[in-house]
UniProtKB/TrEMBL annotation:
GO terms for molecular function: guanosine deaminase activity; metal ion binding. It holds the Pfam family dCMP_cyt_deam_1. The keyword Cell division does not apply. GO terms for biological process: purine nucleoside catabolic process. This is CMP/dCMP-type deaminase domain-containing protein.
Amino acid sequence: MEEADGISILFKLVTDLLACHVLILRISLYQGTISVASAFPAHQEAVQDRDHKFLTKAVDEAYKGVENGDGGPFGAVVVLNNEVVAACHNMVLKHTDPTAHAEACKKLNKIELADCEIYASCEPCPMCFGAIHLSRIKRLVYGAKAEAAIAIGFDDFIADALRGTSFYQKSQLEIKRADGTQAIIAEQVFEKTKEKFQMY
């Protein structure tokens, strides 16, 4: 009961300090942590613009991978302090390595990426999600849902099996799926490349 009282006091203090402004409180009692994200319209618009900019780069990487014959239409960029520090696409065919996915890019030569965000053209597969989680990346933004990849023969049924487990829910990673135009652009990658690339 004391923990709930502490949360109530914190919430009241924050709302009193910020008067009429709205806050989104993300409270994880399971982990015992509280994080506050601003919901000011100007802030949300800036975040939306950033997300669009970096997701567009991830989609460009997806096209680049197919055009180069490196692998499937999956791209990702890692961002640190608003700068792209790594950009990669699927390299499965180039390296004949089924684990050479875009999100598993090794360009940073670091294991822990807690200050970074990752933008992926498509919802990560379980292997890539595991790598993202283990690297402690703080935020994941993806464009297309995994189902969109069925157009190229990629049906990652294991993602559905894992999605219902606690593995995804217990992650401290902030996960956002793009919406509107961003999602449509990311999903079009599969439709536009299916003549050039098929999984099997």
